[in-house]
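Quick look at the format.
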Amino acid sequence: MKKKALTLLALIFIQLLQAQQVDPLLAKDPIKQNVWVDSIMKRMSIDEKIGQLFMVQAYSNKDKTHEDFISNLITKYHVGNLIFMQGTPEKQVVLNNKYQELAKVPLLVGFDGEWGLDMRLKNTYRFPWNMTLGAIKDTVLLKEVGKRIGEHCKRVGIHMNFAPVVDVNTNPNNPIIGNRSFGESKENVTQKAQAFIKGMQGVGVLANAKHFPGHGDTETDSHQTLPVINFNEQRLDSIELYPYKKLFKGGVASVMTAHLSIPALETNPKLPSSLSKNVVTNLLQHKLGFEGLVITDGLNMKGAANYSTSAEIDLAAIMAGNDLLLIPQDIPGSVKLIKKAIQDGKLTEERLNRSVKKILKAKYLVGLNKYKPIVTEHLSKDLNSPYDEVLYRKLIKNSITVLKDNEGILPIKNLQDKKVAYVSLGDDDGTEFYQMLKNYTKVDKISEKHLNVLLQKLEKYNLVIVGFHKSNKNPWKSYKFSNKDLVWLQEIARNNKIVLDAFASPYSLLQVPSFNNIEGVIVSYQNSKLSQELSAQALFGAFELKGKLPVSIKNEFKVGDGLNVEGLDVLQYTIPEEAGVSSEKLSIIDKRIDTILSEKMSPGGQILVARNGKVIYNKSFGYHTLLKNRAVKNSDVYDLASLTKILASLPMIMKAEEEKKISLFSSLGDVLPRYKDSNKDTLLLKEILSHYGRLRSWIPFYLDTKDEKTGENSSKYYRKKRTPRFNIKVAQNLYLAKDYRDSIYKHIVDSELRKRAGYKYSDLGYYIFKEILERKYKRPLNKLVDERFYQSLGADRMTYLPLNKFDKSEIVPTEKDDYYRHQLVHGYVHDMGAAMLGGVGGHAGLFANANDVAKIMQMFLQDGSYGGKRYLEPETIHKFNKRYYENKKVRRGLGFDKPQLNPDIKATCGCVSNESFGHSGFTGTYTWADPATGIVYVFLSNRIYPTMKNYGLVKSNIRTKIQQDIQDAILMAE
């Protein structure tokens, strides 16, 4: 009874203490925690208690000598804590398990992972620096990153992570904090730190607020010397101590004491604050009431190490009020000196017990009372999950900060009016930025050794994007402009409209003498691959920009500045998981590609998959030909064959219908006089678009131009060189008589109709629509669609007549033609009829890469809108994406192919919705979009190389099998 009463009293006492002050080391089951701690304490000798005060540095990249050294410290000197340094996660886990096995009391394992395990361990994930995170408004994201770093720590057996840095970085010249700080606003630093701590401690990893009482306004590095902070107590209390007071109330588990000289707090100017009782005990623990673990900064740092011998420093740190000695340099000497201090009465055992008890409480709190070895399997996969990148992307998107946006220059739109150049400044690489910029429009990289030559080259551009790229290796690397870069920036800005994008600390902008001539200023903070890619996307409106500046830039920009810039409905580029798709499931496409190449279904190709406007798979594979001389690049263009129908003719037909230049219910004879009184006079345009007009599937016009005796191209119709009469270029050194174009149209007029009504796929209708459109608009089809669609869409890799725009090496060849052109068809349309029209057909002739095909398909999927511009009305899209003759077993919409009605026909995988639409092409192309799932799928190949008899791709149905793979990846992810 008496025992129960005492236990109840103890519990009430603990609860009363909790009500008065926050004890961050108190477990949810304080009675059990106290029982465990007391049971350990009772069994400990003085030597074992002293051993608990040390946290020694252990490496996983050193030899057995080092391992034996650490093992000896644990067994002989009872060292109770380790901080793991450089190495690999795999080796660290093995060593962790080994060292824990040796310890009589489980080891508390610490780590310095401010931006994640990558700070010390190879092949682990790196999250952004704190300065980058300081630009994010949404603190929920800070909690998420704290949680994820905590989960990584826990996975490798780390119990305490020495993060976050809570120094208020009010000094831009601070050599050691800088990017490691959340910024110069005490409120912002506190909010971000609190969220980070909640996330990390929420998964059972102790956080650490550092560097107490504040390292943010120093101009020297405590790793090298003892920095001096000459501020009065009032200033220290209002700025430096502000975050700590708030964080203590929030329950941060530990604090790291800094090596600083602070005359206002400690009268001995040579005594580091970490060794000062005035700072560690009187201020931190008594005045501010902190009850968590107090840990010194590394005692190997010269800010402390220069003060005295290692053993004397360790004793002084304990005497000052620290609980844990981080990276002590002389364990045997320190043990001896601490024991002597106890014997001499200089240090009481009660004082020793207080620290040991706190350390043991922390061990219980992180679950070391039920220690289990760390599982070694699947470690790399667990530490490098796709969801780490999803989070990283969120963080970067939310941090990018727009400081200036004159004339609404951002996001970059009206691409038809833009001629864009990119200039790289700084001493680091900007390749990922440039490559991503080119996904949105034509962007030329201009680089020259001499400024005058550069300025001359830039004269023809009306927008220059200047990327300032500095090393992302670590947060201490220089962020500064060179004098040359500053001059070049000002001169470029004086002569051109520019956007400056700084992939460096925002402090880099302090050097810029004037922003007057700079129309757009963006801070992207870091020069990582993802920062470059996402910032490039942001410039073109892929997502909203809402970052806020965490530091001030002279009188030009204040803390918290940052314009909100709305996004546009353009494609984004990301990983599958961000779009709700499983990357693991989607990777089966890579195996399909292996099959395509190994079975020579096609020499190469491009595959793109997007979901909900996010491109999640965009790969080129193989080579241009089986000779394997040129690998396929994402920028290479393919002959799209019949995809031309829905990517060129159909958009213009829709536009013409909207503009009342044609009616779907008009008869052909009413629209084109040459068809009046023909057998096609009464065909409705709607019937032709639905392939229900009884037209023949195609006409081999070229056969009529061959010599009947020799079978060769007749000299009546062809010449090897261009002349005024023979000016239709069919292929290299092959020119057709110009009057033969009319013969083609007459041939169509005179052609027989199929006797039976019903579905029959036909190219002929698109010869007809080409003539209709060109008559109505009095412009060639290739010019029409380029001016009305491609230019403003930024589809600069989509064109007819590709040799007029691209180098031949950028164009993938099609067939080795031995029946008509007698050459490798390279840079010219493969379709013979389109070739005889000079390369511009309504049914064929278009060339593009997968990325630009996706832009058109996404525009359709978005009901006619893309990039902030409305191209077609939603009603128009819906009208054309509809079956009008389904009761006649016609699966097609108006122009668009639709899912099969007959299961034996493999138009699609059979796994897409009835709202979906797309088309296939003879050369081995395919594209499909599905409003139900938000999927856009593009497959481009030259399966007709070496000849059109190469039917492996068609017979295998591999294009629609990939479509099924995509659908399966969505289902499995959701």
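Next, a different chain entirely:
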Amino acid sequence: MSPENQPTADVALRFSVLGPLRAWRHATELSLGPPKQRSLLALLLVQADRPVRLHQIVDALWDEDPPEHAVNVVHRHIGALRRLLEPELTRRTEASVLVRAAGGYRLNTEDEALDLLRFRRLRDAAQDASAAGRPAEATGLFVRALSLWLGRTAEGLPRTVHSHAVFAGVDAEYLHAVRDAADAALASGDTSRVLPLVRRAAESEPLNECLQARLVLVLAAEGLVAQALDHYQVVRSRLTSELGVDPGSELREAQIRVLRGTVVPTRTSPSGDPKSADTSGGSFPGGSPGGSRGVSPGAGQGTTPGVRPAQLPADLHAFTGRRAELDWMRDLLPADGGTPAAVVISAIGGAPGVGKTTLALHWAHRNTQHFPDGQLYVNLRGYDPAGVALTPSAAICYFLEALGVPAEDVPPSLDGQAALYRSMLAGRRVLVVLDNARSAEQVRPLLPGTPTCVTVITSREQLHGLVAANGARSLRLDILTVTESIEFMAKRLGAARVAADRQAAIGIAEQCGRLPLALAIVCARAEGHPSAPLADIAAELAESRDDLGVFAVGDPATDTRSVFSWSYRTLTPEAAGLFRLLWMCPPHGVSVQAVASLAGLTTAQTRPVLSELTRASLWTEPAPGLYGSHELLRTFSQELSLAEDPPEAREDARRRLFDHYLHSARGAATQLYTHREPLPLPDAAPGTQVLSFTDTDRAAKWLVREMPALEAVITRDSGHGTGAHAWRMAATLELVLDRRGRREEQIELHTTALAGAQRLGETLGEAHMHRVLGFAHVRTNDHARGAAHLERALELFTDMGDVPFTALTHRYLAFLANVRQDHREALAQYKIACALYTRTRAYVGIASVTNEVAWTRLLLHEYEEALGDCRRAVRIANRSGNRNIEAAAWDTMGVAHHRLGQHDEALEAFDHALTHYRALNDASLIADTLVHRGEALAVTSPQEARLAWNEALAILDVLGHTEADRLRELLEEHDEVPSRSGPVIINI
């Protein structure tokens, strides 16, 4: 290890990520465990002293395909790393190195303990010296900083992890430091120390013109002029063969400076022969990524004499991403380079601006060697601003002319032209690119009839007819992933600029809907303002998110609004009308029933209209029966609606959509939570499609799938609607949100709904929101605020004479009293609630109170009395046919038996409870009962206890429940047994 890599000896924990991932405790190197654990440590180290959120960890470790229990795996690795890094930790001491922070974890380390932080400190000092006009000092600091690099960042990690942008960003810091070191050395005349550094960086990035230009200049400064000029020619040939481009201005300027002799030599080779100088320099730390692969031009054997067309437009130099799609297209050609057995037709479909043409041309340029007889290209203008598509006859005549057929020899009829066209291509190896097609009918006459040709078609239509009748292979192009969007921006703006503020870059990508066209427009503007922080650009886009004018460029071919309008103008009136309303739908996938409600149509009437929008790629169907679109098309839809639809029509559509979600949600919640009095609702608006649920499984799955939409109803109606839907939806979802355990999210939603009810002047809505917020605040141990909300709710319900919800509020106050350890006050509140239920003969309420009284008896250690209450609750619930309360009472009974040491009776009661809860699909209470069952098994059957707790943990992780962390920490301690010391179960 070089001196720079050796920190001060008194650092207890040391880490290295600039090369292979390593760690030491004092003088002992640590074994860092399996690949996923090493990857997690590397991810935390490259972001040392900053919190890394849990979802970011999952995304980095598993890319876009995490396993079902990914979160659980992360927590296991965190526990193992804590034990490795701080072996002295006990369950009762706080970790100081690997700590919880901001919904994830942070790794705390000193500057001297991590080579990356030492590199950054030296690099920053070098940059300061350069800025102050001290290039010699800067050169020395840069060399010291770069000597810390022993390989690529965290070398040896799995490829899928190492390709993550956070590691690429650190690698980019290295490359930019090399560039700056070369500039400082050239300015100071001290290039000998940086030549090996620049050479190995340039070899690792053979297409990086910035680094190649620095290497040319440094070689010349070292007196190796011939080698510098030779290297320029090598790079120039590589750029031409691999990217189809000439050197850029920076690289050309370097060559010109060498030719003119304006690079001042710092030393001369003794023999004047470049070969006598040291030409070593290795590779990028850790080696080159695999070298470059040139594209050999086609030999052209068997070429038919005549014209060889080469009509492909230029490839995009900054093309990025689409690896899966390019792999798919690679299979269009035989692996052995021979002739396909049948005619090959590939149809690339997708939304406007998604990059169909760019992908087709990039693939075409990469494969020209397979088509020595030429490449034909035509823009069929299927969605032209002028509204006039190219006719098949005009396109064929254009191709025939390119193939050398005189105009007088072209037949007058379309059939004759198509026959001649196919004859001219027979036996020839030609690529045909048909861009921007309108329909299958426009394309069919242009298809070659020989398997030696390949046809690639792009269209916003899905061209199902070509797939069915002509055997075309269909590729649906979607928006970019977040990772591809970041790569897209890094290619255009530079990796360092993007890595410097990755969160802002992600924000820009999301504001652009990850649509390549919009990203390209924003990047072009950002390139024109190189000093502008990406955060400022992201903020500007956020402020203009409802205005496509921010993406206007004055060119109809690349202006997003113009591009979208070409597709919109082709729609039937019915489809156009529906498209104008679709911006009101929640951004996640929406069902046919939701869209039908929005339009005021039946589902049978809605399906063909949605099919038309899907064929036009203005909406997509990511899953059967679920529809959606990206944000920019939604903005376009909103612009059209505000301009063309009367306000009353928009309001009627919004009410039908919100009624669909509200009434369907109440049906699902009522099916799941039969022990709760359903909230009365006004009738749904005419034309609303309301779903009905006959089993708990379907109801539970619908609520999970639609939860983002249901929450959106609350926030949208509170902010921009009447507020009437907001509080009713919030009250309907009370138990759904409570079971998920996401208290802060629940409080935020219900606070929003309370504001809407108060603005509307709805006393009933205000009362319900105070009730729900009171209980939620008690759940988060904010007792004072919870009590204030509950007292206000009780006052309002009492004034309105609402007996069922007055009783429920008393039960909530009893729960608060139990939390405060005032169990006698809790019993008094339950007595009031029971009297109210008895007055109205509400037997389900009576059974609920009886079970909750039993739980209070447990807290008072009155176990025999608790058993008696449980048996009464089971009998009442059974007679009422309410499985929710019966399950809750069995669970309470199991705890009572366990406290009395009645082991077998406890397990039998828990099994009864689990049978009911599983039938009800109540995941949260299944987990809670499993925890209780584990407690009963812990002494006699510890392995069975762990099985119960692990099953509970898996459920809580899926729910994202706050109780998961507590249970996980207990499981990590093999000799600890989970226990509860307060009211946890309450079936309200």
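The CA atoms of residues 378 and 537 lie 36 Å apart.

See the schema section for token definitions.
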